Inverse folding.
């Protein structure tokens, strides 16, 4: 599969628009939830349909308080515009972060944003 990971469940709400785009049915979603022993859709805070067709599921915490979801900003040197759109940010925002940290976009393997902070993994850090 090609493309970007898609947010299928966001804060407990199914994103049918994304499911239709990806030809992912409600039956597909419910099957994956059952495989992960999730009996109630209300227990799922986020679910992301990955490029390989698998579903990453993030359950609510014990008290059902919203938790910060790690948002992928950069994958293999490519800015994830869908994520930025969801976060209401733009590529300038990402480039400003990289500039402040003196990191080139092409050197980034993975970067994500969580708890108002950005975490970056560079190519040269992987081979250590």
């Amino acid at each position: 599969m090609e493309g970007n990971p898609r947010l299928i469940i966001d804060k407990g709400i199914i994103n049918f628009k994304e499911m239709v785009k990806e030809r992912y049915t409600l039956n597909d979603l419910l099957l994956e939830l059952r495989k992960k022993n999730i009996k109630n859709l209300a227990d799922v805070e986020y679910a992301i349909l990955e490029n390989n067709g698998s579903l990453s599921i993030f359950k609510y915490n014990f008290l059902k308080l919203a938790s910060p979801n790690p948002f992928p900003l950069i994958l293999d040197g490519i800015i994830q515009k869908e994520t930025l759109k969801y976060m209401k940010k733009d590529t300038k925002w990402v480039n400003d972060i990289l500039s402040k940290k003196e990191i080139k976009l092409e050197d980034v393997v993975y970067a994500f944003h969580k708890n108002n902070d950005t975490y970056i993994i560079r190519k040269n850090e992987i081979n250590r």
